[in-house]
Amino acid sequence: MEKLKNYIYGQWVEGTGNGVPLYNAVTGEQVAVSDTEGLNFEQALDYGRTVGYKNLSSMTFYDRGEMLKKVALYLLERKKKYYDLSYKTGATHVDSWVDIEGGFGTFFTYSGLAKRMLPNTSFWVDGDTQKISANGTFLGTHILTPSEGVSVQINAYNFPVWGMLEKLSTSLLAGVPSIVKPSPFGSYLTNAVFQDMIESGVLPEGAVQLVCGEPGNILDYVQDGDSVLFTGSAHTGRKLKSLPSVAGNAVRFNMEADSLNCSILGLEAKPGTPEFDLFIKEVRNEMTTKAGQKCTAIRRIIVPEHLIGDVQNALSKALDQTKIGNPLSRETKMGSLVGRQQYEEVLRKVNLLKSETELVYDGKHELVDANYENGAFMSPKLFLNDKPFEKNISHDVEAFGPVSTLMPYKDAEEAAALAKRGKGSLVGSIISHDENFIAETSWKMASQHGRIFVLNRDNAKESTGHGSPLPTLMHGGPGRAGGGEEMGGLSGLHFFLQKTAIQGSPDVLKAITKIYQQGAEKKFSDKHPFQKYFEEVEVGDSLETAGRTVTDADIVNFSNVSWDHFYAHTDATSLTGTIFDKTVAHGYFILSAAAGLFVSGKKGPVIANYGLEDCSFFKPVYAGDTITVYLTAKEKINRGVKGRNIPSGVVKWLVEVVNQRDEVVCVATILTLVAKQSPFIDLNVKNIQKMLNGLTESTPALWGKMSPQQMIEHLEQAVLVSFGEPEADKCFTPEENLEKWQDSLYNHRAMPKEFTAPFLPKDGSLPEPTHKNLEAAKQSFMDNLKKFVIYYKENPQAEHMNYVFGKLNKEMWELMHKKHFTHHFQQFGLI
């Protein structure tokens, strides 16, 4: 039987013991063996702290975000084999989708967050700068840097893929190397995904390691700077947290434990209402999805006392209709538990629940293409606790399977009190259309819950469900649930980052944070900052504008244009008792006038105004006052763009408006989209002619079979087609791929070297030259390039077919030619 290999210190290592046999949860057949005996855990942790930390922490947040995306895309292409393995864990197709593609989705989400919201640096400035001296020469702020250690991540058996990727998404993005320790059960699936992550070649050396089996004494070697993330039972989590190596070394510890989550049906949600039906469906889904093996599953069903019978009957019928059996069958809606060991444990807990509460539903389901003897199948079980304030076993014992308990309540006060008797839960849900009931119950139960999910007719179509943790929201909970937090958008990174206060002068803080601080030295130059590409802009680049004297006419005209006739701008007789001496200029006029002073009218790399932050007005500006503006590049934010957007970044500009007395009257931060410099040649006829002057008959091609003349004639043919001489008769790219290909014209990725043009003969032969020699070909090419430029000046709305990219307009043809010319000029070493 195949032994699962472990991936430590950069190599695949097999354990030296007998290992733990792993079985197919459906058929009982052995699948693999997990074995960690003989592994040097001390060496593994040291390897992560040294090699892994060095490689990951030196990357920027932006680059780590791009790394997550590349890994997720690589895994997504190979998802079929993961589904084939997932069925062996007892998971249905839907269960597997949540685990597998839900895990990939978490990587995609964090990649997007990084590229939209995190800096292109290896540190992260957290919060605003604090002025801690009277004259502003001494400032303070905080920076976040990767914690200098390794993260040991111990995952549960219920989500072999999502459990791993959910933790890695934040640790890798934070720049912290990780050791993944999945539960042995289902680890063959984790192992397969992990192998492909390594095979992708995207992750730097030492970034991740895998221990596939028993953890041994791995936690004996954790030290300060390291972290431990644990998902599993609260009992095991508390034991690990109290280990001398963890507690004694102040190792960061995050626990996400199974909890007795609840769902509350609103007092008004009687049979026949949408909420009643939604409640039954939600509870059934949470009892049967992953066969109830979810840390977020509904364990306590809290129902108005007058609706207990209705809910019990409706839920029993819904569970009766849930087909159980082989996950490979299309009929099956619920699979098996992950193994016989887990089955016996759930059965033990079921018997404990029976000691104090009544089992009111125990459906004897006939299995679809499976049997109870070989597989770890368990039918859903519903208990009734008729006195939930006296019988506490429902609030203490969790059967980690398709098991839940009904319990009655009288009013919102009782509903919240029962919800809190779980002593800390990951999630509680309220299904109701009564906003007052929802609000009152939520406030009272929030202190004991990590998430509150509200479902009703208004959000049902788009709701993600009670049991679905989302990457952008916190996953965790107080008390029994572990007291930890995972994900939560960018908040999830803080666990892995060291927060450090930085104090110093404005110039020192600017040097450390790469963000301009008021009072720091400005850099003036003859080139207008708005004429610089994103790569050229430097923090501190500044512009001092000419002055503008504000007039009474300005104030009147702005009132009329904006319809802002606030008395302070228009009625001098109403100013008694105000802070104004006479009619004052509108704050937004000052900001608009400032923009008029600092913008560059000439077309340049600045694409658009992206936003406005932190605008404050400090002193009034009256008619007769003269304002001057200082514009300074404050911060640069790299930005991932998709589709037909020009590759660009965001530049934050500090706008300081002063009056003739050098008093600051307005400070704001404006954001602009600034284009990145294109790596492709411009369609400048003179420059292209210069490049072609270096092309001779003997110039060798760096790749491909084209001769210099064939290359020029190939480019000329593309130019002719772009203005319809001749008109291309068809596009060879399938319609479903066309939009993706057209979008690719806008990005800065070069055309591939190995690309067979679809319009060429299938034998790879090239057309014979049509011009008498290379010089004649070059001349004809240049003549037609000039013709192209003139044609689109005269016909700016024209569109013509391209053999590969479909019908293109002027902008898209220009982008295509820039990429195409660059590709072939590089082929012959002309660039």
Task: Tell me what the structure shows.
With 831 residues, the protein is an alpha/beta fold. 34% of the residues lie in helices and 21% in strands. It contains 23 helices and 31 strands. The strands form eight sheets. Strands 15-16-17-14-13-18-19 form a seven-stranded mixed beta sheet, with helices on both faces. β8, α5 and β9 form a beta-alpha-beta unit. α2 packs antiparallel against α4, α9 packs across α10 and α19 packs antiparallel against α22. The radius of gyration is 33 Å and the shape is globular. The two termini are 57 Å apart.
Quick structural summary:
With 831 residues, the protein is α/β, with parallel strands linked by helices. The chain has 23 helices and 31 strands.
Task: Give the topology.
Blueprint: E1 3-4, E2 6-8, E3 11-13, E4 20-23, E5 30-34, H1 41-57, H2 61-76, H3 79-86, H4 93-117, E6 124-131, E7 139-146, E8 151-154, H5 162-174, E9 178-181, H6 187-199, E10 208-210, E11 227-232, H7 234-241, H8 244-248, E12 252-257, E13 262-265, H9 274-288, E14 300-304, H10 308-320, H11 340-354, E15 358-362, E16 381-384, H12 393-396, E17 403-409, H13 412-420, E18 425-431, H14 435-445, E19 449-455, E20 474-477, E21 484-487, E22 497-504, H15 506-513, E23 523-524, E24 541-544, E25 548-549, H16 552-562, H17 567-570, H18 587-598, E26 606-617, E27 626-637, E28 648-658, E29 664-675, H19 685-693, H20 708-722, H21 735-744, H22 774-794, E30 800-802, E31 806-808, H23 810-827
Parallel strand pairs: 1-5, 8-9, 8-11, 9-10, 11-12, 13-14, 13-18, 14-17, 16-17, 18-19, 23-24
Antiparallel strand pairs: 2-3, 4-5, 6-7, 7-22, 15-16, 20-21, 24-27, 25-27, 26-29, 27-28, 28-29, 30-31
Helix pairs in contact: 2-4, 2-5, 3-4, 3-6, 4-5, 9-10, 13-14, 19-22, 20-22, 20-23
